[in-house]
Amino acid sequence: MYTHTYRHRVRYRECDPMGVVYHTHYLDYFEMARTEALRAAGVAYRTLEENGIIMPVVEASVDYKQPAQYDDLLAVEAIFEALPTVRVPIRYRVRRAEAPEVLVTGRTTLCFMDAARRRPVRIPPMVHAAFAPHFESTS
Q1: Structural domain total, the chain
Q2: Who contacts 90 (Cβ-Cβ below 8 Å, separation ≥6)?
Q3: What is the pLDDT averaged over residues 27-56?
Q4: Which residue numbers are catalytic?
Q5: What DSSP designation does 97 have?
């Protein structure tokens, strides 16, 4: 399993009139977490695009448990439970950085795709090399 935690300070403009984070912003937080997870593993998304690979989201879900508010420092965990193949399933957990309770959970599934042909492709070698060590058996 590979987990990366992205920290995000809730900005005023991300809150709705009720004073809580507007629901669609969690998808943005998920995007930031997975992009930084790739970067932390050694692959910048920009590099994938320069090599003709894009990663569209093909499925997304969000489960809201408790609201986040303006100026909260959030810890957004992107959890890769298996080495990606063609599809890239990712789970997310959002909580306040210093608190254990989970505010939001979610899932996205992305797909490696040849940008020119708009066809799915297997995991690019550079991504496999970056992620494989996180999934090797420790026993």
Answers
A1: 1
A2: 30, 34, 37, 78, 79, 80, 107, 108, 109, 110
A3: 96
A4: 16
A5: T
